[in-house]
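Try this one yourself first.
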């Protein structure tokens, strides 16, 4: 399992990080987030693979291709977190350690954002901690699954 990649999957509109609503999402770009996680993973001898799409189908295709052999998945599904049942089914099917990250605290925002359909199939969720959520998710997956490959 130590040779598997750590996947960073980003849903709709996350390609606009750093530009879109900086008062909510901050000024850090998606490429900066991926670089932060890549540098952490390098320290564990683990490669990363990033993917962003505004299409749920493209995200599912990516996960079905790369997910089954990966070390773990960090996913910020964006709005798909609230209605992406096909994405939920995909994550359940490939059954890899997955941490869901949301930069903003979705529970302090609009009511429709409070329902997170991936909850039952992800190992954990980090919400409202900004970019630090990605660092925490990477730390968890890298330390847990590289130190005990049998857990993956």
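Now uncover the answer:
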């Amino acid at each position: 399992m130590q040779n598997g990649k750590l996947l960073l999957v980003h849903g709709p509109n996350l390609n606009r990080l750093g530009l879109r609503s900086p008062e909510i999402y901050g000024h850090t770009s998606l490429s900066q987030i991926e670089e932060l996680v890549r540098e952490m993973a390098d320290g564990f001898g683990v490669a990363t693979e990033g993917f962003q799409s505004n299409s749920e189908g493209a995200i599912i295709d990516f996960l079905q291709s790369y997910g089954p052999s990966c070390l773990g998945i960090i996913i910020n599904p964006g709005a798909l977190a609230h209605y992406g049942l096909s994405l939920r089914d995909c994550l359940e099917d490939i059954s890899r350690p997955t941490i869901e990250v949301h930069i903003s605290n979705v529970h302090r925002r609009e009511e429709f954002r409070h329902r997170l359909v991936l909850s039952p199939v992800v190992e954990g969720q980090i919400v409202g901690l900004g970019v630090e959520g990605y660092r925490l998710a990477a730390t968890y997956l890298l330390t847990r699954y590289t130190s005990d490959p049998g857990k993956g």
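Discussion: The longest helix spans residues 132-147. The first strand starts at residue 6 and ends at 10.
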